[in-house]
Amino acid sequence: MTSTMTNTVTNNSNNTRQPTEQTNELALNELALFDLDHTLLDIDSDYTWGEYIVKHGLVDEQVYRQKNQEFYQQYIAGTLDATEYNEFVAEFLASQSMEQLQLLRADFIETEIRPHIRPQGLQAIAEHKAKGHEVVIISATNDFVVNAVAECFEITADNVLATPLEIKDNRYTGKLADKPNFQTGKIYHLEKWLENKKTTNIDFTKTYGYSDSKNDIPLLDWADEAICVCPDEQLLNHAKEQGWQVVDWGL
Fold first, then answer.
1. Comparing C-alpha atoms, which of 160, 185, 157, 244 is closest to residue 209?
2. From the candidates 37, 46, 143, 212, which is the catalytic residue?
3. DSSP code of 109?
4. Are 165 and 86 in contact (CB under 8 A)?
5. pTM above 0.85, yes or no
6. Are strands 27-34 and 202-211 parallel, antiparallel or unpaired?
7. Tell me, what CATH number does 52's domain have?
8. Is 143 a catalytic residue?
9. For residue 35, is it within any domain?
10. Helices in 163-247 by DSSP H: which ranges?
């Protein structure tokens, strides 16, 4: 595991990080990283957004639903081309004004997301916050969806890491603004976020990672303490090998 946070890096079996030496004194804290889909939610918000716009007749039902399901199966299998998928999602966003998208998203959050929030996830976030820990939602889903979902957990956009979609002249372009926040891409975006935090003299001595998916094994390996939430079969087997905590947050 490689981290820009520290000079001395440890794995899950030794949960002590030594802060990077800095000229200015750093404010030290602990960091909790939460995956979103099937971790804090009992659904996949990305896939559900696709079903939402199909249900409301905003796209061709047969064509869009078939493609959405194909991509979702690829995600489950771990074979997803995340750039191709997110450009598929962004194509619809690019066809709409920002004002219309915000109206749709607000309804989506209330009707499709809030009923699927896992209470144990809310509790875990609250417990970390009560201890003064910094909490970040880190998701492969695009930032148009994740930023709004994060508000349900009282997490601001500054503490959201998601697949970034490009915006020009207040409209989505249909392209990505950077790498997908998927698999090792989560480490890429997390390292950038951590570097930015260090410019404000904040560093972290311990990290916690929560996820359900084998796609997040790189993230969970990187974290000091991994918590596997209703894990898929591959992650469950890996968790047993590593001695990671496994919890059931199912509704």
1. 244
2. 37
3. I
4. yes
5. yes
6. parallel
7. 1.20.1440.100
8. no
9. yes
10. 184-198, 217-222, 233-242
